[in-house]
Amino acid sequence: MKFSPVLVEAVRPHWRTLSSAVFCVLFVTGSGLAVPLFFGRTVDALIKSGELDTLGRAGGWMVALFLLRALFQYGQIYANSAFAHAATAGLRARIFDRVLRWPVHRANQWHSGEISSRSFQDTQLIHTHLLVGLVDLIGTLATVLGTVVMLFILQWRLAAAMFVLVPATALVAKVFGGQIQAASVRSQRSLAMLATHLRDAVGGARVVRAFVQERRERDRFDHENRRLLAEQRKMSRHIAVEISVVSLATALGLILFFWIGGQLVKSNLMTAGGLISFVAYVAMAIEPGANLARIYGNVRQANGALARIEEIVNVPVAADPPGARDLPAAPAEIVFDRVGLSYEPNVWALRDVSFRIRPGEHVALVGPSGAGKSSILSLLLRFYDPSEGTVRIAGADVTTVRTGSLRRQIAYVPQETVLFAGTVRENIAYGRPDASFEDVRAAARAANADDFIATMPNGYDTSLAEAGLNLSGGQRQRIAIARALLLAPKIILLDEATSSLDTASEALVQEAVDRLTEGRTAILIAHRLSTVRGADRILVMHEGNVIEEGTYAELLRRQDAFWRLAQAQLIVGATPNPTEASA
């Protein structure tokens, strides 16, 4: 078992429970080791005295010993199970906490199916083969070592022969252990791919069916499933051969010891009781010897899973800089000062972007896909930090303030609404879990969501299907707006809030957006230019730069970049209409 800080941290809080399990297993092992010696001496005493009362007294002592042993065996099993479950739960919690604190760009590099596989299948492997097996390993080692000591006490010549088999057995375990670990890693990788395929097929169920790709998805799943099965069979074959070879070697050794022991008894170098005790100890060591081979194979499997978990846990997390302070309570003025953002070396999403948004001003960002609009929002939310330049809110550089205090002042409504498993009420109160029902309902009314929520089977206590698929797009968006309204933030960030809605839904959502942004600083990303007529100012972006800004009417009148975008969308006034342009 390799040293792993991740495993140590999982075990450390539960060391008392582990210690209790170890104490119990050592008592169980010690009491078991006493039995063959006691039995052999009883046989010698019986042969010497010929009195059957010797057996009765010995039987009484054995019953008392086994009763006490059973009590400690219960303690061993219970404490070991409690320790392993608690440590595994802690390990899962650490993975989840770590993933939550990943920088966004790191999270985007991992597929959720892969994270899910490592969080559950891999931790279960560690639970079964390392944590549960840890106490078993200690008990097994104690049994083997205790047996060796007793064998040397009884007859050192016979015990010395045992070391002929031990190196060969260890070599077999090492060879097969490496093969088992490699097969285990491949198996876990295939299992992660299966989880990914399943999640994609379920999450994209409508697309799969709409494009009649059920057979293709089934074939992809079957291919990965067969590969996983092949790896699991290969691993099972390695384990079976290893255990069988080790068991055969120990059984042959038992026969050899019995023959040699008979010669020693014949030569008066050993008593009959001593030989019985010796053979009993060798027989007792057979199962622990086979267990050591099995445990070693299991540990190699678990090491592969542990390496995959460490890969997640060792990803650096997002952290506030030393000396970070809360965002000032001043009015929410936003300033971008010569800001650049590069996701990859020499590939710029933003370059030399400068603008100022006054407190309470509503500014729209428009431009083609890839122009850098979403990057502006990502910098404000500190999903990324600028590669150059400065972003300031309320006079403070956002990279110097506590991220939590920054994000609590901002409500973000993404283009693709994200709803969580739970009730409607829980989703609206996601940012304020302690909000009263009256506050939740007031936010829903302001977002034009109360009417349709009231028609749902259990109203605000209705559970949502996965990702809210039992709601229409407009309904999901209005719940998201209600969630933002409940926060009462200083700044609103809206990413295409009405882009995929029908006319009726768009009108309801737009009315909710107007209530949400009233009196607050707001930045709205829009592709449909007709939705930004009411903006105080419009910034036109192209290839990571702000190339034009002004009001809707001013930009149409200039007949430049914005005017060309309007023409492409057949906007009235883009061809141009003097009345509209002079408005």
Care to describe what's here?
This protein has 583 residues and is α/β, with parallel strands linked by helices. The protein has three domains: 5-313, ABC transporter transmembrane region fold; 321-409 and 489-550, Rossmann fold (3-Layer(aba) Sandwich), CATH 3.40.50; 420-483, no CATH class. It has 20 helices and ten strands. It has helices at residues 5-11, 15-49, 53-100, 104-107, 112-154, 156-160, 165-203, 205-210, 214-266, 272-313, 373-380, 403-407, 424-428, 437-446, 450-454, 473-487, 503-517, 552-558, 561-568, 578-581; strands at 334-344, 347-357, 362-366, 388-393, 396-397, 410-413, 491-495, 521-525, 537-542, 545-550. Strand 9 and strand 10 (545-550) form a beta hairpin.
Features:
four-stranded antiparallel beta sheet; single chain; ABC transporter transmembrane region fold; elongated; six-stranded mixed beta sheet; alpha/beta; 583 residues; disordered C terminus; Rossmann fold; 10% strand; 10 strands
What is the highest CATH level, the class of the largest domain? Mainly Alpha
SSE run: HHHHHHHHHHEEEHEEHEHHHHEHEEEHHH
Number of strands: 10
**Average pLDDT reading:** 80
Number of domains: 3
Q: Judging by the overall fold, what is the CATH architecture of the largest domain?
A: Up-down Bundle
Helix content bin:
55-70%
CATH topology descriptor of the largest domain: ABC transporter transmembrane region fold
Major beta sheet summary: 6 strands, mixed
Task: Give the percentage of residues in beta strands.
Answer: 5-15%
The coarse overall form would be elongated
Count of helical stretches:
20
Structural class assignment: alpha/beta
What is the assigned CATH homologous superfamily of the largest domain? ABC transporter type 1, transmembrane domain
Query: Could you tell me how far the N terminus lies from the C terminus, measured between alpha carbons in angstroms?
Result: 76 Å
Radius of gyration, in angstroms, nearest whole number: 35 Å
In terms of per-residue confidence, which ranges show pLDDT below 50 for 5 or more consecutive residues?
576-583
Please state how the strands of the largest beta sheet are arranged side by side. 6-7-8-3-9-10
